[in-house]
Protein backbone atom coordinates (compact mmCIF):
# COMPACT_ATOMS: atom_id res chain seq x y z
CA UNK A 1 0.00 0.00 0.00
CA UNK A 2 2.31 2.67 -1.18
CA UNK A 3 1.36 6.29 -1.51
CA UNK A 4 -2.03 7.82 -2.06
CA UNK A 5 -4.89 8.18 0.34
CA UNK A 6 -6.74 5.25 1.85
CA UNK A 7 -9.83 5.20 3.99
CA UNK A 8 -10.12 2.88 6.96
CA UNK A 9 -13.13 2.12 9.08
CA UNK A 10 -11.07 1.95 12.28
CA UNK A 11 -7.59 2.98 13.33
CA UNK A 12 -6.40 1.05 16.39
CA UNK A 13 -3.70 2.86 18.35
CA UNK A 14 -1.50 0.22 20.00
CA UNK A 15 -0.52 -3.31 19.01
CA UNK A 16 -0.60 -4.95 22.41
CA UNK A 17 -2.94 -7.81 23.24
CA UNK A 18 -6.04 -5.60 23.40
CA UNK A 19 -5.28 -3.69 20.20
CA UNK A 20 -4.40 -6.82 18.22
CA UNK A 21 -7.48 -8.67 19.50
CA UNK A 22 -9.74 -5.79 18.55
CA UNK A 23 -8.09 -5.37 15.15
CA UNK A 24 -8.44 -9.09 14.38
CA UNK A 25 -12.12 -9.11 15.38
CA UNK A 26 -12.90 -5.99 13.34
CA UNK A 27 -11.04 -7.31 10.29
CA UNK A 28 -12.96 -10.60 10.52
CA UNK A 29 -16.16 -8.56 10.59
CA UNK A 30 -15.18 -7.03 7.25
CA UNK A 31 -13.90 -3.68 8.44
CA UNK A 32 -10.83 -1.98 6.98
CA UNK A 33 -8.42 -1.65 9.90
CA UNK A 34 -5.16 0.25 10.38
CA UNK A 35 -2.87 -0.28 13.39
CA UNK A 36 -0.64 2.51 14.66
CA UNK A 37 2.17 1.33 16.95
CA UNK A 38 5.74 2.43 17.64
CA UNK A 39 7.11 -1.10 17.93
CA UNK A 40 9.22 -2.61 15.19
CA UNK A 41 6.98 -5.67 15.07
CA UNK A 42 4.35 -5.30 12.42
CA UNK A 43 2.49 -7.36 9.88
CA UNK A 44 5.23 -7.27 7.27
CA UNK A 45 8.44 -7.88 9.20
CA UNK A 46 7.33 -10.10 12.07
CA UNK A 47 9.18 -13.34 12.61
CA UNK A 48 6.62 -15.29 14.61
CA UNK A 49 9.16 -17.88 15.69
CA UNK A 50 11.18 -15.21 17.49
CA UNK A 51 8.06 -13.86 19.23
CA UNK A 52 7.18 -17.28 20.57
CA UNK A 53 8.92 -19.01 23.49
CA UNK A 54 11.38 -21.85 23.07
CA UNK A 55 11.05 -25.10 25.00
CA UNK A 56 13.63 -23.90 27.55
CA UNK A 57 12.58 -20.24 27.67
CA UNK A 58 9.44 -19.37 29.62
CA UNK A 59 7.93 -15.90 29.69
CA UNK A 60 7.44 -14.69 33.28
CA UNK A 61 4.49 -12.53 32.18
CA UNK A 62 1.42 -14.76 32.02
CA UNK A 63 -2.34 -14.37 31.84
CA UNK A 64 -5.20 -16.49 33.15
CA UNK A 65 -7.56 -16.73 30.18
CA UNK A 66 -11.21 -17.48 31.04
CA UNK A 67 -13.37 -19.87 28.99
CA UNK A 68 -15.27 -16.87 27.58
CA UNK A 69 -12.02 -15.28 26.43
CA UNK A 70 -10.96 -18.63 24.93
CA UNK A 71 -14.17 -18.59 22.86
CA UNK A 72 -13.44 -15.02 21.72
CA UNK A 73 -9.82 -15.84 20.83
CA UNK A 74 -11.00 -18.97 18.98
CA UNK A 75 -13.48 -16.85 17.03
CA UNK A 76 -10.72 -14.59 15.74
CA UNK A 77 -8.39 -17.52 14.99
CA UNK A 78 -5.82 -16.87 17.74
CA UNK A 79 -6.46 -19.68 20.24
CA UNK A 80 -5.88 -22.37 17.59
CA UNK A 81 -2.43 -20.94 16.91
CA UNK A 82 -1.21 -21.43 20.50
CA UNK A 83 1.04 -24.41 21.13
CA UNK A 84 -0.72 -26.94 23.36
CA UNK A 85 2.45 -27.62 25.34
CA UNK A 86 2.53 -23.93 26.39
CA UNK A 87 -1.03 -23.91 27.82
CA UNK A 88 -1.63 -24.84 31.47
CA UNK A 89 -5.21 -25.49 32.58
CA UNK A 90 -6.51 -24.41 35.97
CA UNK A 91 -8.92 -27.23 36.74
CA UNK A 92 -9.75 -26.48 40.36
CA UNK A 93 -9.24 -23.86 43.06
CA UNK A 94 -9.27 -24.06 46.81
CA UNK A 95 -9.42 -20.60 48.37
CA UNK A 96 -9.03 -20.27 52.12
CA UNK A 97 -9.51 -17.11 54.08
CA UNK A 98 -9.19 -15.76 57.54
CA UNK A 99 -11.46 -17.18 60.26
CA UNK A 100 -11.69 -20.54 58.49
CA UNK A 101 -13.53 -19.35 55.38
CA UNK A 102 -13.19 -21.60 52.33
CA UNK A 103 -14.36 -21.62 48.71
CA UNK A 104 -13.75 -24.40 46.21
CA UNK A 105 -14.22 -24.27 42.47
CA UNK A 106 -14.14 -27.14 40.01
CA UNK A 107 -14.12 -26.93 36.21
CA UNK A 108 -15.63 -30.42 36.12
CA UNK A 109 -18.62 -29.28 38.20
CA UNK A 110 -19.12 -26.34 35.82
CA UNK A 111 -18.92 -28.52 32.72
CA UNK A 112 -15.76 -26.79 31.52
CA UNK A 113 -12.38 -28.27 30.59
CA UNK A 114 -10.70 -25.62 32.77
CA UNK A 115 -11.64 -22.68 34.96
CA UNK A 116 -8.98 -20.75 33.07
CA UNK A 117 -5.83 -21.34 31.07
CA UNK A 118 -2.41 -19.92 31.93
CA UNK A 119 -0.85 -18.51 28.75
CA UNK A 120 2.46 -16.72 28.32
CA UNK A 121 2.35 -13.16 27.02
CA UNK A 122 4.79 -13.92 24.17
CA UNK A 123 2.73 -16.89 23.01
CA UNK A 124 -0.57 -15.06 22.83
CA UNK A 125 1.05 -11.99 21.27
CA UNK A 126 2.61 -14.15 18.53
CA UNK A 127 -0.75 -15.86 17.89
CA UNK A 128 -2.52 -12.51 17.57
CA UNK A 129 0.17 -11.15 15.26
CA UNK A 130 -0.26 -14.21 13.06
CA UNK A 131 -4.01 -13.49 12.87
CA UNK A 132 -3.62 -9.91 11.70
CA UNK A 133 -0.33 -9.75 9.85
CA UNK A 134 -1.76 -10.05 6.35
CA UNK A 135 -5.11 -8.36 6.90
CA UNK A 136 -4.18 -4.94 8.22
CA UNK A 137 -2.23 -1.79 7.39
CA UNK A 138 0.53 -1.01 9.91
CA UNK A 139 1.90 2.41 10.80
CA UNK A 140 5.08 2.78 12.85
CA UNK A 141 5.98 6.43 12.45
CA UNK A 142 2.72 8.24 12.21
CA UNK A 143 1.00 11.38 13.32
CA UNK A 144 -2.59 10.79 14.40
CA UNK A 145 -5.04 13.68 14.44
CA UNK A 146 -8.75 13.53 15.32
CA UNK A 147 -11.50 16.06 14.88
CA UNK A 148 -12.92 17.85 17.94
CA UNK A 149 -15.38 15.04 18.61
CA UNK A 150 -12.71 12.37 18.21
CA UNK A 151 -14.81 10.60 15.60
CA UNK A 152 -12.64 10.98 12.50
CA UNK A 153 -8.92 10.82 12.25
CA UNK A 154 -6.09 11.20 9.84
CA UNK A 155 -2.98 9.07 10.03
CA UNK A 156 -0.05 10.61 8.23
CA UNK A 157 3.20 8.76 7.62
CA UNK A 158 5.69 11.01 9.43
CA UNK A 159 8.53 9.98 7.11
CA UNK A 160 6.85 10.47 3.76
CA UNK A 161 3.87 12.69 4.53
CA UNK A 162 1.56 10.38 2.59
CA UNK A 163 -1.57 8.31 3.20
CA UNK A 164 -4.20 10.12 5.17
CA UNK A 165 -6.98 7.64 5.99
CA UNK A 166 -10.13 8.83 7.65
CA UNK A 167 -11.56 6.57 10.33
CA UNK A 168 -12.77 6.03 13.85
CA UNK A 169 -9.92 5.91 16.35
CA UNK A 170 -9.63 3.38 19.17
CA UNK A 171 -6.84 3.88 21.73
CA UNK A 172 -5.37 0.69 23.18
CA UNK A 173 -1.82 1.86 23.72
CA UNK A 174 -1.62 2.45 27.47
CA UNK A 175 -3.26 1.44 30.71
CA UNK A 176 -5.24 4.67 30.81
CA UNK A 177 -6.59 4.44 27.27
Helix coverage percent:
10-25%
Major pleated sheet: 6 strands, mixed
Which whole number gives the mean pLDDT? 77
Q: Regions with pLDDT < 50 over 5+ consecutive residues?
A: 45-50, 161-165
CATH topology of the largest domain: FAD/NAD(P)-binding domain
Task: Name the CATH class of the largest domain.
Answer: Alpha Beta
Structural class call reads alpha/beta
Mind explaining what this structure looks like?
This protein has about 180 residues and is α/β, with parallel strands linked by helices. It folds into 2 domains: about 1-45 and about 135-175, FAD/NAD(P)-binding domain, CATH 3.50.50; about 55-130, no CATH class. About 25% of the residues lie in helices and about 30% in strands. It has helices at about 15-30, 50, 65-75, 105-110, 120-130; strands spanning about 10-15, 35, 60-65, 90, 90-95, 100-105, 115-120, 135-140, 140-145, 155, 165-170. It has a 6-stranded mixed beta sheet with strand order 8-2-1-11-10-9, covered by helices on one side. Strands 3-7-4 form a 3-stranded antiparallel beta sheet. Helix 1 runs parallel beside helix 5 (about 120-130). The longest helix has 12 residues, at about 15-30.
Summarize the model shown.
The chain is of the alpha/beta class and 177 residues long.
Amino acid sequence: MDGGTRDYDVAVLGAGLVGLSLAAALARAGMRVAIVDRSSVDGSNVNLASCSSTDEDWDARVYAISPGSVRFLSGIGAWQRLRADRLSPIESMDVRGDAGGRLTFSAYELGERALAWIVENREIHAALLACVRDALRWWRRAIVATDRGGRRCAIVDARAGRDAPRSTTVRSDRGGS
